[in-house]
Amino acid sequence: MNDILNWILETVSSVDPIVRTALAGLGILLETSVLVGLIVPGDTIVIVASTAVENPVQYVALVLTVIAGALAGESIGFALGHYFGPLIRRSRLGRWIGERQWVRAENYLRRRGGIAVFLSRFIPVLHSLIPLTVGMSAMRYRRFMRWTVPACVIWAVAYVSVGSAAAGGYRELSQQLHFAGYVFVGVIALFLVLVLVVKKWLARREAKHMEQEDPPEVRAD
């Protein structure tokens, strides 16, 4: 196990830090815009990149880049929803998503307003649909940013911190413990399971707000 992990970590670390950080930012930008988040695993890209963090400067740079990428992606999604939302919804991709998902996202946004924007970052499917849906709604970009910024910050700090801490701990223990690799995998797996549990809990908790009919209008500001 240690030999395999050493090879993986060395391979990731061999990538130039600037390139590695930029790729993580690009990955999360794609995840949060144009419905690409339904296909591109941005969280996996960020965790992999974070395992190569070697010092505080690289940690801060990666966190800031991931936040910037997430916000850029959210902004692109908002703009596309504002200008081309109905067209995207009627497109082949929009039909593949399904009208029911679009309606659920609209109802959820109208019922919960800014809270829907914040929580959607942690709910599968919605984290890709909500920016477009907000762009098609009366909510202004400034209010959208007020709710999405803290969500993106929490997400970025959590993923980069866990990935870098797990990898750093493994490097310190790998020379002393032959089962250090299992500890590393266990930490990452535990984090991902926790994320999955939280996402499912949030999805169930918020589902009732998505399914309710005759929702009130979203305020523009």
Could you give the topology of this structure?
Elements: H1 2-13, H2 17-31, H3 42-50, H4 56-90, H5 92-97, H6 99-112, H7 114-120, H8 126-136, H9 141-173, H10 180-211
Helix pairs in contact: 2-3, 2-4, 3-9, 4-8, 4-9, 6-7, 6-8, 6-10, 7-8, 7-9, 9-10
Give an overview in words:
This protein is an all-alpha fold and 221 residues long. The protein is 79% helix and 0% strand. The protein has ten helices and no strands. α6 (99-112) crosses α7 (114-120).
The secondary-structure element order is HHHHHHHHHH
Find the structural class using helix and strand composition.
mainly alpha
Q: Which regions have little confidence, pLDDT < 50, spanning 5+ residues? A: none
Q: What is the molecular shape?
A: elongated
Radius of gyration, CA atoms, in whole angstroms: 19 Å
Overall helicity: over 70%
Q: What fraction strand? A: under 5%
Largest sheet: none
Average pLDDT across residues? 85
Overall number of strands: 0
Q: How far apart are the termini? A: 53 Å
Briefly characterize the structure.
The protein has helices spanning 2-13, 17-31, 42-50, 56-90, 92-97, 99-112, 114-120, 126-136, 141-173, 180-211. With 221 residues, it is mainly alpha-helical.
